[in-house]
Design brief:
- The protein has about 280 residues and is α+β, with helices and mostly antiparallel strands.
- It has helices spanning about 1-10, 25-40, 45-50, 80-85, 150-175, 180, 210-220, and strands at about 55-60, 65-70, 90-100, 105-115, 120-130, 135-145, 185-190, 195-200, 220-235, 235-250, 255-265, 270-275.
- It has two domains: about 1-15 and about 150-275, Nuclear Transport Factor 2, Chain: A (Roll), CATH 3.10.450.50; about 20-145, Nuclear Transport Factor 2, Chain: A (Roll).
- Keywords: Signal.
Length: about 280
């Protein structure tokens, strides 16, 4: 536990790493998709907006996932936004965190403006943008106020509790204990790997794992969490980017996977609610 608390303390000091430059073309294409999304968002053009989304599309609110399975399912009440004073939004910075040829994760600072161009809200939003057969589009979004909106004590508590939940998750995972994993998972839960998984109960992936299949297909024995970094913090939600390594029954590392995990606090329990895995790095 002393080692874990030391790791958590170091996490408070870390800034998210920037995506490497070798995927610059993917980053620029994904950035263009977000900019086109924002342009149509400011026109309140719901049909055009959906041309800049990847489906299934996930909107992650406070403790809940809204999944639009296909074009036409995505909804946004622009009338409500206007009644709140909104007239337009801007992206103030787009920071690429992780990138591959077909997926880019961004941390974005944004501002909402009123009728007289006054600032009515500033915040941060995390986006996962993916390439599908018809081009690049936003797959996942989770927004909220800037971190300065919560106290330092509340921020530190959220990071510490969420980090402990991640380490406990890996302990249960390496014990191949699906019942124990339920203590560190939330349902519903979504994961984007080579395919999209959406668990609406405790018995389906990614909440329930088939460890026998992993042992048979990969000779998997255990996994190790590496390079855990804080991306964004709210009182009841922490977004981490991380890497984990998988080892086979001979103790040899056979893959390293960059990822983003989103943990939420629901009914006083911290658990995983969304995961996005980048392509595995084979040593």
């Amino acid at each position: 536990m002393k080692k874990l608390l030391t790791i958590i303390t170091l996490l408070f000091l870390l800034a998210p790493a920037i995506a490497p430059a070798q995927n610059e073309e993917a980053i620029q294409n994904a950035k263009s998709a977000l900019e086109n999304f924002l342009e149509d968002w400011n026109r309140s053009d719901l049909d055009a907006i959906q041309k800049h989304l990847s489906f299934p599309h996930v909107t992650h609110g406070q403790g809940r996932l809204i999944v639009a399975q296909q074009e036409g399912d995505f909804a946004q009440d622009f009338g409500m936004l206007r009644r709140q004073g909104w007239r337009r939004s801007s992206f103030d910075s787009l920071l690429p965190l992780q990138a591959s040829e077909s997926k880019v994760n961004f941390l974005v600072d944004f501002t909402r403006y009123g009728a007289d161009n006054e600032i009515i809200f500033s915040g941060q939003v995390f986006y996962v943008v993916t390439k599908q057969h018809d081009g690049w589009g936003m797959h996942y979004r989770s927004g909220g106020p800037p971190e300065r909106a919560i106290t330092e004590g509340a921020r530190d508590t959220a990071i510490q509790e969420a980090t402990i939940a991640i380490y406990k998750f890996f302990e249960a995972f390496n014990s191949a204990d699906n019942n124990a994993l339920l203590n560190y998972n939330h349902v519903p839960q979504a994961m984007l790997n080579t395919r999209f998984l959406h668990a609406t109960n405790n018995e389906t992936p990614p909440v329930r794992m088939n460890f026998d299949a992993m042992r048979e297909s990969e000779l998997w024995s255990y996994s190790i969490l590496e390079d855990l970094e804080v991306v964004h913090v709210m009182n009841n939600k922490v977004i981490f980017q991380l890497e984990f390594e998988r080892f086979n029954s001979s103790g040899n590392k056979y893959s390293r996977v960059p990822a983003v995990w989103v943990l939420t606090k629901i009914n006083d329990k911290w658990g995983v609610q969304y995961r996005s895995l980048m392509p595995a790095i084979i040593p």
